[in-house]
Design goal:
The protein has 280 residues and is mainly β. This is Lipoprotein.
């Protein structure tokens, strides 16, 4: 388990923090990006050392661009936001989307000018900015990847507002979602505990964030019990299921992060002792 100290920019936004400022770039030799970047030390636990492309969410970059879609709970629509952080970049960014095809859209998606990116390929292209004498100073770069369909949690199923915080047993927790056969990257699941309990007198000031990767996008998994480690019985917990793609590329000595993802939040009351449910 990777236990770290600071939370990276994109994960901050996924977790719902309103003030998202990307931390300082650190340089090291702990990964495959030609030994030039390293994992941020963050305040979260990563259960799976083989996180695949999702590892790139936890790596620093000089510049970033992409799309994030949040579904705040099972009764809310998806809301797509564009992120562009190219301040002082010496490259010009252009984004090419496939022609619109509404067949992939999930019925709960909120209308957005960026909502047509899911279920198809997207291209991020970097072009050098010409100097004053008209000469281009650097070579360009282009990357294309598939953006999976908007993710939805289908079990536990919540259909009424009064059921927004279902009691869920931690042991052998079954999670189901709408699968995307074209997605080869799996999904990332985050369990977030902010210290609140169904019994307010049991609230703590010890937040927990545990993260795991679901390897197969087949629509069903039994969550790793360690996702609920260090979280007390009857805690109010948010399960965040994220599906997407993220790439980190080095161009002329600078690191560029490109991403497109959707995530849905499922707030629950985490039950570790069945007998305690009667006391809620």
């Amino acid at each position: 388990m990777k236990n770290t100290t600071f939370i990276p920019f994109i994960i901050l936004c996924v977790l719902g923090f309103t003030s998202c400022v990307e931390p300082h770039l650190e340089v090291g030799n702990d990964n495959n990006l030609e030994s030039n970047t390293k994992l941020e030390e963050t305040k979260y636990n990563i259960l799976n050392n083989d996180a695949g492309i999702y590892l790139n969410y936890f790596l620093q970059s000089d510049f970033s661009a992409g799309y994030s879609s949040l579904k705040a709970n099972s009764l809310q629509p998806h809301n797509v936001v564009e992120f562009i952080d190219f301040k002082n970049a010496e490259m010009k960014l252009s984004i090419k989307k496939e022609p619109k095809n509404d067949s992939y859209l999930y019925k709960t998606e909120k209308k957005s000018k960026h909502g047509d990116i899911f279920g198809k390929d997207i291209t991020f292209k970097l072009q050098p900015i010409s100097s004053k004498n008209g000469h281009k100073k650097e070579a360009g770069f282009e990357t294309t990847f598939y953006v999976p369909n908007l993710v939805e949690i289908t079990n536990p199923k919540v259909e009424k507002e009064i059921k927004l915080f279902p009691n869920c047993y931690a042991k052998n927790f079954v999670l189901e979602w709408n699968s995307d056969p074209k997605n080869e990257n799996g999904l990332m699941v985050i369990v977030q505990y902010n210290g609140l309990n169904a019994h307010p007198s049991y609230d703590t000031n010890k937040p927990v964030i545990n993260i795991d990767v679901i390897k197969e996008d087949n629509g069903r998994t039994v969550l790793n019990d360690d996702l609920f480690k260090d979280i007390p019985n009857l805690s109010i917990v948010t399960i965040i299921l994220l599906r997407g793609h993220v790439t980190l590329e080095e161009v002329q000595g600078k690191y560029y992060k490109f991403f497109a993802e959707s995530h849905v939040k499922l707030p629950i009351v985490l039950v570790k002792d069945i007998n305690s449910v009667k006391a809620i």
